[in-house]
Structures are given as C-alpha cells and as structure tokens.
Amino acid sequence: MLLFTGLGNPGSKYAGNRHNIGFMAVDAIARRHRFSPWRRRFQGAASEGEIEGQKVLALLPETFMNESGRAVAEAQRFYKIELRDVFAFHDELDLPPAKVRYKVGGGNAGHNGLRSITAHCGNDYARIRLGIGHPGDKALVHHYVLSDFAKAERDWVEAVCEGCADLAGLLATHRLDEFQNRLHLFLDARGFGPPEKAGTKKPG
C-alpha cells in the first residue's frame, strides 16, 4: 500500500487557496484513476484505488495544515505503510508557479504541514513540491498562501494537477526522476515551461 497525501486546509473557505494545491493534485489523481468515493477516515477524507498494480490510499487530512502529521501517521500505522511509500503533495514557495520538483527527506523549509508529518512519522518520505511562487516579502507570505489562486493562474494550476494525475503511475512505481522530467515536458507542451531568459530569442 502506498499513501498519497495532499496537504491543505479543510472546508470551502480554503478550497481555492494556494496553500491547498496539494489537496487539488491528490483529488485529481483519485478522480483520474477512479478511486473509491471519499469517506471520513484517519482524521481526514480517504479514498482507495489502484495505480500500476499498486494499491494506493489517497488522504486529505482534515486536521488543518499544522497538524497534518496526525492524520498521516494514523493511516500509516493502520496499513503498516513504509515511510518510503508515503508521498506528500504540497505548495512550495521556493519554486516558481507551475514548476514541480520532488525530494526525499531533507529540510521542511518552514512548511508546517511537512514539519508535522516529520514529527509524527519520520523524515524520509517523498515530497512532491508544487511551485506557487513567492510574494517577494516574507511579511506577505501568510496572506499569500491563504489567498485563492487568481483567475489568471487557474490554467497552470489545472495543468499541474492534470499532469500529476497522468503520471501518477511513475510515482506508484518509484520512478521519481522520470515523473519529474516527464511532468516538466507535459507542462512545457502546454505553455507552462520555464520563462525565456533575458537577452535570448527563440529561433525562427
């Protein structure tokens, strides 16, 4: 059993927040792969399915972001899921919008959801870091992450979630490098690749 957990805050008030892009990505995966209906379990909303022959539990903790680890730890203990089989999808201020990176272990970069998972479960799980950009001033971060994505951002948000759903099989089979590389190609093909460097021109 693998555990795909999205990080965010529960309730309609927060549903469109930048902080909730992890919820959005895991929900997209569950829909694409026709997981079971969501139901309340493990202090959150849980859904089960199969990807590439692997059983997967999708979990959206309803403990609020700062206590995400309580829900993740409960599900992990119940199914005896190894930490290497836990994948946390979360917003990442240190990456530009529509940029996605993964890492296993390492620091939590001030992310309270990751800090909680590490405290309750250990640190050597995979983070799927979904870039949302930075407001440019540390004092603005709290308001920024708890604000909804702007209308102009919705296309790339949907593309990131669609790409995660399309390529979830690579995560399920622990091909994380391939997941990251192919997701970048997927996003680039939809016009959400890296910005053109200053002083360069496209050929043509």
From TrEMBL:
One of its GO terms (biological process) is protein quality control for misfolded or incompletely synthesized proteins. It is an enzyme of class 3 (hydrolase). Coiled coil: none annotated. It catalyses: an N-acyl-L-alpha-aminoacyl-tRNA + H2O = an N-acyl-L-amino acid + a tRNA + H(+). TRNA binds at residues 14, 64, 66, 112. Pfam families: Pept_tRNA_hydro. Monomer. Catalyzes the release of premature peptidyl moieties from peptidyl-tRNA molecules trapped in stalled 50S ribosomal subunits, and thus maintains levels of free tRNAs and 50S ribosomes. Hydrolyzes ribosome-free peptidyl-tRNAs (with 1 or more amino acids incorporated), which drop off the ribosome during protein synthesis, or as a result of ribosome stalling. Belongs to the PTH family. This is Peptidyl-tRNA hydrolase. It comes from Ancylobacter aquaticus.
